[in-house]
Amino acid sequence: MLEFHEIAAIFPLMQNGEFETFKADIEQKGLLDPIVLYEGKILDGRNRYNALDALGRLDDIRTEDFEGTWNEAIEQVMSKNLHRRHLQQSQRGMAAATHIELYRGPAKERQVEGGHAGGMIGGRGQHKPVADPSIGIRPKDLKPIPSQSRDDAGAAFGCSGATVERCRRVRDKGANELAAAVLKGEVSAGAADVLIQYPKKKQSELVKDGKKAIKAAVAAKKTTQVRKATRKKKPPQLIATINSSIDALMKRIEQSIKGTGVQRTRAMDDLRLCQKHVKEACEFLV
Prior knowledge:
Elements: H1 16-29, E1 35-38, E2 41-44, H2 46-54, E3 63-65, H3 70-81, H4 89-102, H5 106-114, H6 147-157, H7 161-173, H8 176-184, H9 189-195, H10 200-209, H11 211-233, H12 235-258, H13 261-285
Parallel strand pairs: 1-3
Antiparallel strand pairs: 1-2
Helix pairs in contact: 1-2, 4-6, 4-7, 4-8, 6-7, 7-9, 9-11, 12-13
Protein name: ParB/Sulfiredoxin domain-containing protein
Organism: marine sediment metagenome
InterPro entries: ParB/Sulfiredoxin_sf
């Protein structure tokens, strides 16, 4: 059995109907392109491998080794997958965020030699273990991606820099199941960015429960955020308005006792206005 290389996890595996169609094609035509290995693991050809495994035809596997550098291996995966796969914006954002974390520029290459690069642990050239192969490396403490880096990565992967940053936060703070769901296209980056405010156990449960549960949880969290923001900004203004309305109402009532029907009508209008402000205050202060 061959393992998947962590670089290959930049892009999601085929799921459900897409995989079944692909497997049928492999069954009919056989393995047309060899599976590419890097460091003894599958760099390109995971879906072909899974299809052959499902068909019980692993003996048909042909492999070839990729001889380039780590960064060249990343570029190989991008060139093979970026344009031939139909990916959603959120999937592209997660792939871009993973790409940034895996990519080693000249400075990082020098750090790797001393065993201090991000994504590395003690000793020379030892890779940090992957928490979940479906989403690649998950560094312990991710720093915000520089806007230029995320925008460049977003442009390369066909999504916005903001989407890349959302996906980075999901990879950093989200449960493995949530990050994997974004990569698979089951949850949008925007929704996942809201869900990471829940405990990780709750995030995993929501992914398991499906789209309706996720939609309700996102709506509930957004409502809570609005109310918290309103508590800080609006109560003094509302209270002042209510007090002013009450004062005006009292004067109108006094006038209406001795006044005409028109004055009484105005008093009733003021009463309704006051009731409206009271309801607004209750909504935002509860």
